[in-house]
Amino acid sequence: MSFGRGLLASFLALLFLLAAGPAAADHTLPAAMAGRLELAWVPDEPLPLQGEWGFAWHRFVDPHWQGLPTSAFAPVPSSWNDLTVDGKPPGENGWGTYALQVDCPAGRSLAVEVNGQRTASRLYINGEEVAAHGEPGPDRERSWPAVYSRVPVTRVFACPLRLTLHISNFDHRAGGFVRPMMVGTVDVLERARERRIIYDTVLLAAYLITGGLSLIFFTVRRREMAPLVFGLFCVCMAIYTDMIGERLFLRFFGPQVAWYPYMRVEYLSWIASMALFFLTLRGLFPAEIHRRAVQLVLAGLGLGAVAVLALRPGQYSYVVVPGQAIAVIVAIYIAVAMVRAGRSARTDARVLLAGMLAIFAALVADLLLIDAPGPDKKFAPIGFALFMLSPAVVIARRLTKALNAEERSRTLEENARLREDVERMSRHDLKTPLNSILGAARLLRDEDRLTADQRELVGVLQRAALRMLEMVNLSLGLFKMETGNYDLRAQPVDLRQVVTRVLVDLHPFADANAVTLFSQGSGHAPIYVRGEELLCYSIIANLVKNAVEAAGPGKRVSLALAGGDPVTVTVHNPGQVPPEIAAQFFEKYVTSGKSGGTGLGTYSARLMARAQQGELAMRTDPAEGTTLTLTLPPLKGEPPAPLPMLPIDQPALALDGVPPRTVLLVDDDEFMRLVTRRLLPSPPFTVETAANGQAAVESMGRHWPDFLLLDMEMPLRSGVDTVRWVREQEAVHGRPRCAVVMLSGNDDEASTARALQAGADRFLVKPVSREHLLATLRELEAGLPPSEADGLAIPPHEPARPADEIVVVDPEWVEFFPDLMSYQRDTVEAMARALAAGDREDLQFLAHRAKGGLATMGLEWAARQSRLLERDALTAPATELEHIIAAMREHLVRVRLESK
Question: Sites of the modification 4-aspartylphosphate (predicted)?
Answer without folding.
Answer: 711
